[in-house]
């Protein structure tokens, strides 16, 4: 078996499983169920079908106990190099009842690969993770994606499926799907079944096969706002209004807020060379910097502060505070406040 990896990601763990580089025990926990499900399926497929009846055990913890799990792990494989023991929903066994399993981990059977799963649950106690690590095992937390992790994840998924993807395509998918990893994989896998290996996912590909407009989306809206193209801004907003399910105002407002928040950082970044500015803004590609350079010419720092205040007011009014207008009327009004901002702020 392979040695313990101190830091592990989904991709690296997936690769090690596919290469059959195992450690004695894996503890998979966390709020993002998708990664745990995928890894569990990989472990279940490790053995040839002819060996699974005797060497693959799937145990549901709510129907078992720690002693039974430990006894199963101490068995030896039949006509196989190892046996796989997958324990699902381990969180249903109380921590004070895990002693037999902890004792097993102090001397794990070298021919057993034990996979402990806590699907959708983040483990808060340290006893089990410490025992797993002491046994030479791996602890993997499947955390929900943060907003700034979505773009790299989309790129990683595409690469894993043998595809490339254009920056605008990444933005479109991120904007449409958000942080739902399962939906991200499903949408990109859909494209992978259509495109040849090594192909590039373009905005046109996404529009044709997923139904996201390449011309009317938040990516294009930010472009229009940065360039102060008023006609284009209102055409996009009108399209959103006619397709509300695919273009929720909360996502649009969040995208605009993020843009102007970073634009304010850009204004106060001393070194505005492309590399330094991109680093200060946390951008992945130099091409993303264009909107900030353009936006800085059209909106000085005082205007940006006024606009950020207007976005916050929009958010509270959408929640019914001091307003009975529809969210779409409020969004229309917000665009008006953005393009006509004068930088009048109280100092």
Describe the 3D structure:
Helix 4 (66-73) runs parallel beside helix 5, helix 11 crosses helix 15 and helix 12 runs antiparallel to helix 17 (327-339). The longest helix is centred in the C-terminal third of the chain and has 19 residues, at 249-267. With 347 residues, the chain is an alpha/beta fold. The protein is built from 17 helices and seven strands. It has a five-stranded parallel beta sheet, with helices on both faces.
**Mean model confidence by pLDDT:** 92
- Which strands sit side by side, in order, in the main sheet? 2-3-4-1-5
The fraction of residues in strands falls at 5-15%
Helix-strand sequence = HEHHEHEHEHEHEHHEHHHHHHHH
Shape descriptor reads: elongated
Features:
alpha/beta, 347 residues, 54% helix, five-stranded parallel beta sheet
Structural topology:
Elements: H1 10-18, E1 25-30, H2 33-44, H3 49-55, E2 56-60, H4 66-73, E3 83-88, H5 99-105, E4 112-119, H6 127-134, E5 138-141, H7 147-160, E6 164-165, H8 167-177, H9 181-194, E7 200-201, H10 203-210, H11 218-227, H12 230-242, H13 249-267, H14 274-281, H15 290-298, H16 301-318, H17 327-339
Parallel strand pairs: 1-4, 1-5, 2-3, 3-4, 6-7
Helix pairs in contact: 1-2, 4-5, 7-8, 11-12, 11-15, 12-17, 13-15, 13-16, 16-17
How do you describe this structure in short?
By secondary structure, the chain is an alpha/beta fold. 54% of the residues lie in helices and 10% in strands. It is built from 17 helices and 7 strands.
């Amino acid at each position: 078996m392979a040695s313990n990896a101190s830091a592990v990601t989904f991709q690296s763990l997936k690769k090690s499983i596919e290469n059959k580089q195992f450690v004695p025990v894996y503890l998979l926990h966390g709020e993002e169920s998708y990664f745990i499900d995928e890894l569990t399926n990989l472990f279940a497929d490790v053995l040839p079908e002819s060996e699974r009846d005797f060497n693959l055990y799937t145990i549901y913890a709510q129907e078992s106990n720690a002693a039974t799990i430990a006894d199963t792990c101490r068995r030896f494989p039949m006509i196989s190099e190892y046996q796989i023991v997958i324990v699902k929903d381990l969180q249903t066994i109380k921590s004070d009842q895990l002693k037999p399993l902890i004792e097993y981990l102090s001397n794990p059977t070298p021919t057993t690969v034990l996979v402990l799963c806590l699907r959708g649950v983040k483990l808060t106690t340290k006893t089990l993770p410490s025992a797993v690590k002491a046994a030479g095992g791996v602890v993997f937390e499947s955390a929900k994606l943060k907003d700034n992790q979505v773009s790299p994840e989309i790129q990683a998924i595409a690469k894993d499926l043998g595809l490339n993807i254009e920056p605008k395509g990444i933005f479109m998918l991120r904007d449409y799907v958000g942080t739902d990893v399962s939906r991200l994989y499903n949408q990109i896998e859909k494209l992978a079944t259509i495109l040849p290996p090594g192909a590039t996912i373009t905005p046109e590909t996404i529009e044709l096969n997923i139904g996201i407009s390449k011309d009317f989306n938040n990516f294009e809206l930010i472009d229009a706002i940065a360039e102060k193209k008023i006609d284009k801004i209102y055409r996009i907003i009108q399209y959103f209004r006619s397709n509300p399910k695919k273009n929720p105002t909360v996502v649009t407002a969040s995208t605009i807020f993020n843009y102007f928040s970073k634009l304010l950082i850009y204004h106060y970044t001393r070194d505005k060379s492309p590399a330094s500015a991109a680093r200060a803004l946390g951008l992945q590609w130099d091409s993303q910097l264009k909107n900030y350079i353009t936006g800085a010419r059209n909106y000085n720092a005082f205007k940006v502060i006024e606009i950020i205040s207007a976005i916050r007011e929009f958010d509270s009014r959408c929640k019914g505070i001091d307003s009975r207008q529809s969210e779409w009327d409020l969004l229309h009004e917000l665009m008006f406040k953005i393009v006509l901002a004068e930088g009048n702020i109280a100092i």
